[in-house]
Amino acid sequence: IMSQEKLYEQIHEAFNYNDGNLYWKIKRQRIKAGNVAGYVAQNGYMVIMLNGKKHYAHRLIWLYHHGYMPTIIDHIDGNRSNNNIKNLRIATASQNQHNRVINKNNKTGIKGLSIVNIPVNGAIYTYYRADICNDHKSVRKYFSLDDKEEAKKFLDTARKEIHGEYARAE
């Protein structure tokens, strides 16, 4: 495993940074000096091949600017391909999860809000369930289907209070 110091030296030898991208300084096989380094992978992250190994561009950019690589780097705006140094920050695993964008399969259009069916005395009642995580515990509140805006307000307020600067509603 290459040390961070050695990798730091190599990225400064191989790349220039400008506006969220690393640009090749040197010509290699099919690579021309001045080209943007890397490609966007299926998971949405920019990937750069260096010394035969894949590296996430946001991790190399952090190392390029700060000289060390933390365990987790968060994209503030939630856009995995926006690697502007101003859009990157250190986070814990929990903080990184709080800043996730809404899941594609969300049916309500509101992060943390789902529709649930609850059986009561043989009848089925449908509600909105608002869930937010606080220190590995779920804070949960139920709302009638007429109270979607109230549920959203509850989630927005709780998210800001619990998750602080890592809170992401959409």
Can you describe this structure in just a few lines?
The protein is α+β, with helices and mostly antiparallel strands and 170 residues long.
What average pLDDT do the residues reach? 91
Net shape: elongated
Radius of gyration: 21 Å
Would you identify the regions where 5 or more consecutive residues have pLDDT less than 50?
A: none
How many helix segments?
4
End-to-end distance: 38 Å
Give the DSSP E fraction (strand runs of 2 or more residues): 25-35%
Q: What sequence of helices (H) and strands (E) makes up the elements?
A: HEEEEEHEEHEEEH
Widest sheet, order of strands: 3-4-5
Provide the helix percentage. 25-40%
Tell me the major beta sheet. 3 strands, antiparallel
Query: What is the SS-derived class?
Result: alpha+beta
Q: How many β-strands, per DSSP?
A: 10
Strand and helix map with partners:
Blueprint: H1 4-14, E1 15-18, E2 21-24, E3 39-40, E4 46-50, E5 53-56, H2 57-66, E6 73-75, E7 88-90, H3 93-98, E8 113-120, E9 123-134, E10 137-143, H4 148-163
Antiparallel strand pairs: 1-2, 3-4, 4-5, 6-7, 8-9, 9-10
